Batch of 2 targets.
Target 1
Amino acid sequence: MLKDLVKSEEFHLCTYVSSEDGKLWQQCVWSQRGKECTEVAKHYITVAAKPEYHPTLLNIINTVVYYSFEDAYRVLQECKECIPESKEVLELADQCMKNSTKGRFPVIVIEGLDATGKTTLTQSLQEILRGALLRSPPGCLSQWRARFDAEPPLIRRAFYALGNYISACDIARESAKSPVIVDRYWHSTAAYAIATEVGGTLESLPSSHSEVYRWPRDLLTPDLVVLLTVRPEERARRLLARGVEKTREEAELEANNLFRQKVEEAYRRIQDPACVVIDASPSKEEVLSEVLLLIQKHCNL
Ligand SMILES: Nc1nc2c(ncn2[C@H]2C[C@H](O)[C@@H](COP(=O)(O)OP(=O)(O)OP(=O)(O)O)O2)c(=O)[nH]1
Ligand SMILES: Nc1ncnc2c1ncn2[C@@H]1O[C@H](COP(=O)(O)OP(=O)(O)O)[C@@H](O)[C@H]1O
């Protein structure tokens, strides 16, 4: 078949052949009508080093999930002309010590979808542990949150990423004096960003060991991250009971069960530190006592 083709037409053909020493070569041949093929080029094929990031992740890493202060900072610097509020956020970020170092007291982060009981639990933990209660994004950024929530993912997520670095500065300071309880931190930023960016089903999420779940090397690492999970119907009941205006993302969570599952699965895949998952469906008192036991075990408190 190929021989007939070669004799009748004039064309270039590339084939791959291996030499006796096991090397792989790309052989380019040229055929003229009715004549034997002529080798016109031969290239040695070498194995390329594995790319740092899988191609499918390139639209996530440092475009919706940021792994360094500089990367997030640079995005808001580019926005200063079109979003004047960026200047004020950058000024606050300038004041925070990059690579904030954690103090000697434990830092405990409470994560979870809206209405899983984070606010309730963190307030109780603050009282019992006589600690500091912080949140991300920190209060100093609250006035601009709606402004950046209206921006495209690249900018919005850079805002939240800088919020984590500013919170880290507060965490470092407070953890020198007492235990610190944090209501949402990098897990929320990464989980919501990944779940929003990755279309399709749960299977479309980057695999559990993907670098996309890697904790930023320059971001203060907490001692314990607790992920509160609640049955969807119980969460909906609590949301209703709370009667608070839903965020755009929360409305999305309610309307889109798959998005909610992707957020939760992304939370679970983040490593170093990974979340410790707690069923927060029981009563406030039961959830509180289970988390206190966890803190005693993990943080020797
Ligand atoms: N804190 C925080 N929220 C994020 C981030 N990315 C997306 N979100 C979404 C999660 C929530 O649907 C929404 C509001 O989250 P927050 O917990 O900060 O606000 P709020 O305290 O009103 O909600 P919650 O206490 O969780 O019911 O923003 C992020 O990086 N940090
Ligand atoms: N363990 C619990 N059992 C029943 N209701 C709860 C529990 N924890 C919190 N709630 C109620 O559910 C609603 C949402 O709780 P909240 O702490 O605001 O959640 P989040 O901060 O995660 O959004 C509130 O009305 C709160 O009183």
Target 2
Amino acid sequence: GLERSRVEEMIHAMQRAGAGSLQVISDFDMTLTRFAHNGRRVPTTHNILDNRLLISEDCAKKMKDLLNTYYPVEIDASRSTEEKLPHMVDWWTKVHELLIQQKIRKDLLAQAVKESTVMLRDGYKEFFDHLAEQQVPLLIFSAGVGDILEEVIQQNRVFHPNTHVISNYMDFDHAGVLQAFKGQLIHTFNKREGALRRAAGLTALQGRPNVLLLGDSLGDLTMADGVSEPENVLTIGFLNDQVEQRKESYVNSFDIVLVKDETMDVPNAVLRHIISGRDRK
Ligand SMILES: Nc1ccn([C@@H]2O[C@H](COP(=O)(O)O)[C@@H](O)[C@H]2O)c(=O)n1
């Protein structure tokens, strides 16, 4: 018959190896969450903090100005990752400093998530539940805010025991007031360091050489760099923004590119294939 494509071959090999050899590594903002809904942007974990319960009008304005300055740099197809790096460090550092000045209270985070318009992609429940049922570890690797991310998946009732999170976590003082961010900063383009430093040490992920990787940024491709002796790493990229400018680089870098797709349909179909053991040829 016809020769299988590389992607088909990989899915087939992953299916033969089964759920016990698989791990899923995913970005969070705009990968597990939607990019837009009804023509409006869905907030990232950082933007969920833009709520008067947590931060002042003035701080919100400063964060917006920073977003308007640095987000275009993050997604600029004409600049290299090396060029973008220092700008990302500046962006995250400035925003975290602003947030710390606001004396954000831990006990108000859940309310801010409830009041936000954040939405996981359509089909999220099947994605999270299926992985949990099959005991396939899910590593969520996010440059967003870990405390908010956890609250989002908690409120959607999909925070299962197979889920591991590497992200920027808030450090609260004894009174529950934000005083710092924990550990080394994670931004869009230093996930490789985090993967080597943190993901490589997670015992739940060990002995699983097949990886399904989901991301929305070229920086997300390094999230699997901590996997020792990987066999098959199938990468799916969500291309949400600046589509024409970035299409070529995404197609050259990810195995599967989903353009303005707000659903988990393709990852779910791939997982059904790999995990179910159907289609044994
Ligand atoms: N102050 C900020 C900083 C970053 N962002 C966006 O969040 C995304 C990072 O999170 P991932 O889960 O995708 O790793 C990143 O792409 C930034 O655009 C923000 O909204 N505000």
